[in-house]
Hints:
The complex is a heterodimer.
Chain A: H1 2-27, H2 32-70, H3 78-116, H4 119-125, H5 130-169, H6 173-178, H7 180-183, H8 186-212, H9 217-256
Helix pairs in contact in A: 1-5, 2-3, 2-5, 3-5, 3-8, 3-9, 5-8, 8-9
Chain B: H1 10-41, H2 46-86, H3 93-131, H4 134-140, H5 145-184, H6 188-198, H7 201-227, H8 233-262
Amino acid sequence: MKSGxxxxxxxxxxxxxxxxxxxxxxxxxxxxxLVLEQVWHVTIQSFPTTAMAGFFVGGIMxxxxxxxxxxxxxxxxxxxxxxxxxxxEIGPMLIAFMLSGKVGAFTSAELGTMKVTEQIxxxxxxxxxxxxxxxxPRFLGIIISSFFLLTGGLMLSVIGGSTLGILFAGINPQxxxxxxxxxxxxxxxxxxxxxxxxxxxxxxxxxxxMGYFTTGGAKGVGRSVVNTSVLTMVTIVVxxxxxxxxxxxxxxxxxxx
Amino acid sequence: xxIKTVSANPFSALGHFLIVSFKDIRSFSQLVxxxxxxxxxxxxxxxxxxxxxxxxxxxxxxxxAFCVTFASIVTILESSFHMKIVIxxxxxxxxxxxxxxxxxxxxxVTALLLTSRVGAGMAAEIGSMKVTEQIxxxxxxxxxxxxxxxxxxxxxxxxxxxxxxxxxxMVCILAAxxxxxxxxxxxxxxxxxxxxxxxxxxxxxxxxxxxxxFGIVIPLMSCxxxxxxxxxxxxxxxATTQSVVFASVAIIVLDFxxxxxxxxxx
Lengths: 257, 266
């Protein structure tokens, strides 16, 4: 009962914070240079990690599907199946897990240190709005750059998958790529991209929220870092289910109509 | 990471990168060696080990069960979608989904969640001990910090990860079964029969071996970055972030290697 109340309380706090940030974006947008600076920082920091994760996720899915598919003699479909499964579901989720550890933890540690050392109060004292000056550039920067990072990771997963197709299943790259368009239709691609977009939104909201409301000194910073990555992962899994469900609902409507 | 400190000359940058990574690898393997020696040289500290086991296993149980449930629901719905495209019916879905859950999803998602919760916690704890000079104090008192701090965490995390991955696999299969029964029209008996055809006992053994390896990697990474923490609150935050990132990448690479190796045993 108590934990339920705490959960609803936390959810409300996050939604109010998100509303505040969006209102600031609408009324008093920050400078474009600040956003671009954040995009550059986040992308340059996390691109190697994301690329590596994407490559290996593609490879793992190919190995697993190769074992299953070869039982049915349908090796021609290996590339299509592995790519579709990676792009629709596993890829965005695992790469977003990685980003929550990298970008989310870093941003909430940075903001939390600012909060604990009273730099945010200093900004408010100087008559500036901390949400406009500090939170908003990071929020937008993380959304933009993690969307592109996730998409880049998915592209590399195709390369990883075809590499493992050569090494493990003995399928040449042309054969691997040939059936991707037949299985991975436009709706599947859109579903993958919508997932990337929603994970980017979740990541940006939670890490800025957790960093902005850190209390309790250096120990509090550590606590908010851990909470950020756990909460982001839980929310990403829930959103994964939600977007899949929504996608299937939309597809069934369009198929009927 | 350290792009700003390196000069623009690409050869110099490459050399700097090689030297730094060589030093990192050397000190990491020193830590691993010291941990192995201390693991077998003395009996582990019982009380600390049990406390850590409680923190690892009991503390993460509900989070992991919750996440894994949703992940398995998505897996079975998506694999039904794919099956309908390729072979026009989805009669193989229960078998495929249970194989996928047991071989990949259960242990990897569990390990990634444990990394972000337990690994980050351990790195933050040991990092702040390092920053407040408690580890130097331990050395002054003649206590080996590896035996005192790393070994209990290693044992607890390994046991905890294996147990949690078994529980996660059970929860996953149960959730997939319920979804298949309610939404896809496979009764529970049909699901179990299909699972029996596709899944061998060795799948469960391999899943546990995977979880065992992941459980070893997490505390070693966290303790390494905690011990090498730079001073200040900023340093603890960076140590935590780095430990989570490196442990996650290590888990994905290790999972790839283990999957590749096990594929020769089927």
